[in-house]
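Supplementary material to the annual report.
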Amino acid sequence: MMNTENNISKANRKINSLPKHKASSTKKFNDSFWGYLMIFPTVAGLLIFYIYPFFKTFFYSFTNMGAFGEYAWTGIQNYKSLLTDTNLWLALRNTLLYTIISVPISIFLSITVAALLNAKIKGLTVYRTLFFLPAVTMPAAVAMVWKWLYNSDYGLINYILSKFSIKGPAWLSDPKIALYSIIVVSIWMTVGYNMVIFLAGIQGISKNYYEAAEIDGAGPIAQFFKITIPLLTPTIFFVSVMSLIGSFQVFDYIFMMISTNSVALESTQSVVYLFYKNAFMLQEKGYASAIAMVLFAVIMIITVIQIKLQKRWVNY
Amino acid sequence: MKNKKLLSILLGASLIASIFTGCSESTSSNSKDKQVTLTYGIWDKNQEPAMKEIVAAFEKTHTNIKVKVELTPYKQYWTKLETEATGGNLPDVFWMNGPHIAQYASGKMLMPITDKLKKDNFDTSVFPESLIKLYTIKDEKYGMPKDWDTTALWYNKKIFDDAKVPYPDDTWDWNKLREVAKKLTDKSKGIYGIAAPQEDQQGYYNTILQCGGFVISDDKKVSGYDKTEAIEGIQCWLDLIKDGSSPTAQQMEATQPSNLFESGKLAMVYQGSWMLSEFAKNEYTKDKVDVVVMPKMKTRAAVIHGLGNVIYSKTKNPEAAWEFVKFLGGKEANEIQAKAGAAIPAYKPALNIFFDSTKQFNAKAYADELEYSFMYPCSKDTGKWNAVEGDNFKKVWAGQTTAEAACKKIAEDMNKILAAENK
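Predicted assembly:
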C-alpha cells in the first residue's frame, strides 16, 4: 500500500517537475523564434535601406564626394557653406510655406470628407473609391497630367476659364503662384489617403456617445464638433505627424512640373529638390549629404515639438 | 494548430526569399554553356527599334552572345548611370556623349579600345575626324563613334505659302531671318514667326560661333562668354522675343517649341537632326515642313555632336563586349541605323542610305553644315558649368537681367570651375 502510494507520488512529482518546465520554456523560445522570424524581413530591410544609409550619409556630409563615390575628408566645410547658401534658405522657406498651407488644409478636408462618407448614402463605396484613387496613382503620372492641365496656353483649366472670359494665369511659370499650384496637386493626392485613416478613426468612436447626444438634443453639426473631433484627436495627431514628415520631403511634384530653366524654380524648390540638384546635377554629393542632414534635423525638431505638445490637445 | 504553423513557415520563407530576389540582378556570363548576356544602355525611344534590329542582326552571327537593350529616358539616364557606376554595376556597353566622356574616362569607368582597334585592324577613317577626337581622352580612344548631329532651320511651308513669302534658303542671313519672322507673326491666329527658346545645342551655341565667338577654349581652360562675340550670340535671340516674333520664355517652357511647330503655331524653328524621324512620323509635320541650313551671321558655323558606344571598364565579358562594339561601328549596324532614319550614322559611306530614308525632307542640309562644324563645348565637369549657364540665362530670358551681365557672370563662375578641373 505504502509502496504504491509512494510510487504514485514519486511518479506525480516526476510528471509535475521537469517536463512541464521544459515545455513552457521551449514554447516561449518557439514563440519568440517565430516572432523574430516574422519581423526579420522588415527589420533587415529597415537596417539595409534606412539605418545604414543614414549613417553613411552622415559620414559623407563631412566629405567632398564626386560623381562616382570617390571622396576626400573636408570636416565641417559643407555645413559652413550651407549657412551662407541663399538657395538653402529659399528652399527651407518654400518647404515651410508648402507644409504650413498643405497639411492643415488636407487634414481639414479629409476629416470633412470622412465624416460625410460615414453616413449611409447611396453609392458610398463608389465615392470612397473615387476619393482614394489619387492615393494609389503614381506621383509621376499625376504630375504629368496636372502639368498639362495647368499649361498656360493650351491647358484645360485656362481653356475653361477663357470660356468665362477670364485670362488664366501662368500656373506653373509665374513665381508668385507656382508653389500654390503645386500645393493644390498635393492636397488632391493626400486627401484620399488621410480620409481612409480618419474613416477608421471615426468608426472607432462608440455609437453610445452619439445616441446620448441625440437624446440631449444635439444636431449633427454639434455632434461633429463636440464628439467626433475630440475623440478623433489621436488620429489627427498621427496623421499630422506623418503628413508633416512627408510634406517636408516633397520632391517629385516639383521635379516633374517645374523645368530646370523656369524662373519659378527659386520660389518652388524644396530642400529635397536642392539635395537632388547638388547630388546629381552638380555632382557635389558631400554637400548634398549635408543638406540631407539639415533636413533630418529640422524634421526631428518639429516632430519632437509635436509630441511634446500632444499632451495639451489629444484625448486618449 | 499544425496548419497555422505550416502557414507561418511558408510565409516566413517567402518573405525572406523576397528580400534576396529583389536585390540580386543577373548580369552576365554563365561559363558552363558559354552563353553570354550583355546589357546595352540607351536613352532615345525613337531609336530603340533600330537598336533592337541591330542587336538581332548581331545575335544571328554571334550565337553565343545575347544582348539586352535597356532604355532609360534621357532625363534619368545620367543619374541612373552614375548610381550604377558608384555601385559597380554599369551596363556592359552603353551610349556616351561629349559632356560626360571626360568624366567617365578619368573616373576609370571605361575600357580603352585603342589597342583593340589596332589589333583588329579597324579602319577608323570611315568616321568624321572630330568624332574620334571627341572620344579620345589623353591619347586613349574610348568610344566607337555611333552618330553625329547638327542643328538646322525648319520651316512650315503652309505658313510661308499662305503669306506668299519665299522659303528660306542658303542665301539667308540673320537679318533676313529676323525680318521674315516679324512678317509671318500673326497674333490673331496665334502664329509666331520663330521660336527663340533658351536652348544651347539647338540655339545659342550655334549663334555664338556664328558671331565669331566661342563657349570654351580649345585647351578647355578659359570660358569665352565674356567676349563681345558671345554676348552678341545671345542677344540676337532676345531681339526676336523683343520684336514679338517669338513666344515668351514662359510660354516656351510650358509648351516645347517642337510641339508648337507640330501644331502649326510656328513658321520657323531651329531643331537638331534627331528630330527628323519625329517630324516624319507626326501627322501635321510629315508633309508640311522642310529644313534648310542655318542662316549665316558674321560667318557660317554649326555645333556638331555625336554619340559614342563605350565599354564598361569592369565588364565581366570584355571580349563579347568588344565584339558587339566592333559590330556597332561596322557597315551593317550603321546601314540599319541609316535606314531607320533615327540618327545620322557616323559611318560616312552609310550617309546616302540615311538621306534616302528621309527623302521627304532636305535632310542633306545637316550634312552640308559638316564643313563648318565645331565640336560641342564640353570639359570634365561640363555638368557644373552647364548649371551656371542655365541659372543665369533663365534670368535673361525672363527679362530680369541683360545678356551682357549674365555672360560676364557665367564666364567668371565657369573659369573658376575650369581652373579647379585643371588643378
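The interface with chain A takes residues 8, 11-12, 15-16, 18-19, 78-79, 82, 85-86, 103, 107, 109, 198, 249-251, 253-255, 381, 383-384, 387, 390, 393-395, 397-398, 400 of chain B (CB under 8 Å).
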